[in-house]
Amino acid sequence: MFTLLNVFFALFAGSVFAAPIKIRSETHTINMVNNCGTGTPTLVQNGAVLNSGNSYTASGPFTAGIAYLQTGECGLNGDECTTVEMTLINPTAPGAGSSTDITLIAPHAFNKGVGFRYFNGCDGQGQTCATADCTDAFRTPTDYFAQTQCEENNVGLTITYC
Q1: Which value, to the nearest 10 degrees, does the dihedral of the CA atoms of residues 50, 120, 40, 114 take?
Q2: Could you give the angle at the alpha carbon of 127 between the alpha carbons of 122 and 131, nearest 5°?
Q3: pLDDT digits over 43-64, tens only?
Q4: How far is CA 95 from CA 56, 73, 103, in A?
Q5: pTM, two decimal places
Q6: DSSP β-ladder status, 156-161 and 48-51
Q7: Segments of 8-155 assigned E as strands
């Protein structure tokens, strides 16, 4: 009986006095800055407008999102406009983290200059497309150089128009 009591006490004491496990949830903030003087920064995910303003924070992975400056000519999915495509996710394996790009693949077309930069990890990495003939944007589906990867947890993104 003494041995059984010792085992019980050891298990009980270990569970009560063990240090709590700290769980950090995944979050990603997307800041949109409009220096153009006109238009509305628009953030869309899965066909739904999530934000038409300055900042949005996702609690968890943010996948398959797009952003564009709505100037009246843009379709819901950024058609006819310069569009930033993004997936912000904490990496679970090398090469499985965040990826962002600027697309001008039809039906997208240049309408306003845009640039993006990561923050809170991979600080300053990004791309800019300031003119219709910029070289940092996707123009064909195989322009993989246009993607900017980030392998940091909880990375944020600042998108700047004009």
Answers
A1: -130
A2: 165
A3: 999 999 999 988 999 999 999 9
A4: 25, 35, 21
A5: 0.83
A6: unpaired
A7: 27-34, 40-45, 48-51, 55-59, 62-70, 83-88, 98-103, 114-119, 126-129, 148-150
